[in-house]
Amino acid sequence: MNIYLTPEQHHTLATNGPEPVRAIDPATNAEYILVRAEVYDRLKTLLSGDGEWDRDAYPAALEVFARDGWDDPRMDVYDSLDPRRS
Asked: In DSSP terms, which residues pair with 22 in a beta bridge?
């Protein structure tokens, strides 16, 4: 299902730059974030855990974490807080 933007909504999206636009449903006060479909599709893939990002980015993420100090032995205490570990 699609909805079509009003001219005012189009103008807001066009002039907001790279930032997403927040929309509020006046009937429920529910807040929505409007992002381009390409951005949503990429986020959906990243968050689902089913995409190639997991495989391809994991080594790079570990490298960044190590550079930021996550491999410091003092961080091992946090491993004991992981409920997945016995």
From this structure: 33
CB 21 within 8 Å of CB 6: no
Residue 66 half-sphere exposure toward CB, CA atoms < 13 A? 6
Assigned token pair, 74: 């003092």
**Low pLDDT (below 70) residues in the chain:** 49-55, 86
Strands (E), 1-86: 21-24, 31-34
The answer for residues whose C-beta is within 8 angstroms of residue 53's C-beta and 6 or more apart is 45, 46
CB 40 within 8 A of CB 49: no
Q: Are 20 and 34 in contact (CB under 8 A)?
A: yes
Q: Strand, coil or helix: what is 68?
A: coil
pTM of the complete model beyond 0.70: no
